[in-house]
Please model this.
Amino acid sequence: MLIVRGLVKRFQAHPHGALFAGVDLAVSAGECVAIVGESGVGKSTLLNCLAGLEPVDGGSIRLEGRELAGLDDDAFARLRRMRYGFIFQAFHILPHLTLVQNVALAMWLQGSAEGEAQARARRMLERVGLGARCEDWPRHLSGGELQRVAIARALVHRPALVLADEPTGNLDPERAAGVLDLLLENVREAGAAGLLVTHSASAAQRADRILRLDSTGLHARPPAR
Ligand SMILES: Nc1ncnc2c1ncn2[C@@H]1O[C@H](COP(=O)(O)OP(=O)(O)OP(=O)(O)O)[C@@H](O)[C@H]1O
Ligand SMILES: [Mg+2]
Model:
């Protein structure tokens, strides 16, 4: 589903060498890979590069067989709408839309008819255990519930790639485990490729594989402590 080869990222502010180089990664449909690494090593930047939100300085990104490095901003924006799902630490659920409208938005944005978008959004909210809350407002929900809405929204349009940056950073450990299990289950069910950036060892362990990012690339085994 996703094949990354030799990805390089530099920032002007870091003139001495690249933030990271030689990033290789292959993620299958239905597979979820955790990415760990020191703070500031570039995990969020890597996700942004994969989503075309940051330019890359070398390498190749193939999603569903299509080369993405070098796509212009408009083409990447279209692709993000159609083929990407995002889950962030600070949910980004819109406060003035009901839950079902928040989730359906991802489908309206890619041109789905209102009725179909609403029906799929409802089914997706049922899947994350919020079927009875469809017409409710985000301000009535707990942090864990809001993150379940974010999962529903990230997956409702059946994306190819789901990028999650610290999706459980705001939640207590018990809620975090429940939300992660739901995320992994839905990524697998949707046949998407999932990338989960996390500081939490227990969160990473729920993924199919764990990779550690450093300036030389992604490495299979976290260092022994
Ligand atoms: N637009 C930018 N211009 C210059 N430097 C940047 C820019 N964005 C990020 N950086 C730097 O790149 C490095 C990596 O940042 P990034 O946010 O990707 O780290 P991270 O691994 O996600 O860290 P954390 O675990 O704390 O979230 C940091 O040193 C950061 O200051
Ligand atoms: Mg980060």
